[in-house]
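okkk here we go again. third time trying to get the zinc ion bound version out, last two times i messed up the smiles copy paste (missing a bracket lol). double checked this time i swear
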Amino acid sequence: MSLKIYDSVPDNFLETDVLGLHEKFPGPFLMHLKGEKSKPLFLSVLLHGNETTGFLSLKKVLSNYADKILPRDVIVLVGNTKAAAHGLRHLEGQPDYNRIWAGGESEEAKLISQVLEYVKGFELFANIDVHNNTGKNPYYGCVNVFKEEYLDLAKRFSPKTVYFTEPSEVESMAFAPLCPSVTIEAGLPGKEEGVLKVAQFIEEVLNLDSFNHNFDIKNAEVFQTYGRIKIHKDATVDFKNDNDSKADFSFVEDLELKNFESISEGTLLGFYRDRGLIKVLDNDGEAVTDDLLEFREGKIITKKEFVPAMFTQDVYIIKEDCLGYVMKSFSVT
Ligand SMILES: [Zn+2]
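finally!!
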């Protein structure tokens, strides 16, 4: 696996759809495009092969500049084209492309090291990594550094911002020491509204001269993830909210609709058969299950108020990642 770097938009790229991408562009590749201002915006799309909004919005932006110069230099990473051809987050045997940015021995991790090596040769303006959610979520941005410019960047995409430091092997974390850096979550994959929203955001950042160094971080509403709810990979899960379900867990039907809304103490999340198959892990990987959840007569009940994010009904994602993230309001002191 070697890193291909194009210095212009390759022929056919704008006409290629996401499923046909891998056939023409096997493996991850960079495009380093020249614009009026020289500090490049770094943009990554398709780190997760089924999350198509970034790719679609990138094509929209590049089409707008087909016959005029970009406002500033852009370096684009098009990520897991192989998984994209199958409509999957990643293929069996492949690592998750958004968990290989802190190094590693896989050939994919080595390729990402080459990407980071390459970009370190430039003074970057900003970094944007575009993702989608599997569950229903509002648009939001995630930062890993609590600084004015980073929050300014995130808030230009959405007023909802999440601050997280775990998992730490993600793209936005690797760029955080280099420039204002954000992961944006653009709703469900490929939806036209999300594609337009992301394209507008990219255009806005491309046209910016600088970020707001005086951004009011004291009054910025930001959530911090402090845990995730893990379900054992052998557990069976449904969303029927049924005490008599044969599944190990039968969660309430509308769990994903609660994303970014406060869940109060004493709320029923669902029913369990084996409480050993669910745990809440904090950012250090320590179990804090009993701080958050109570298990009583088959019911899973919240023990304290929290704000959920990325709760999903996609059982594959639940097993691979988690049922959802647990957040609280975060403010500087
Ligand atoms: Zn993703």
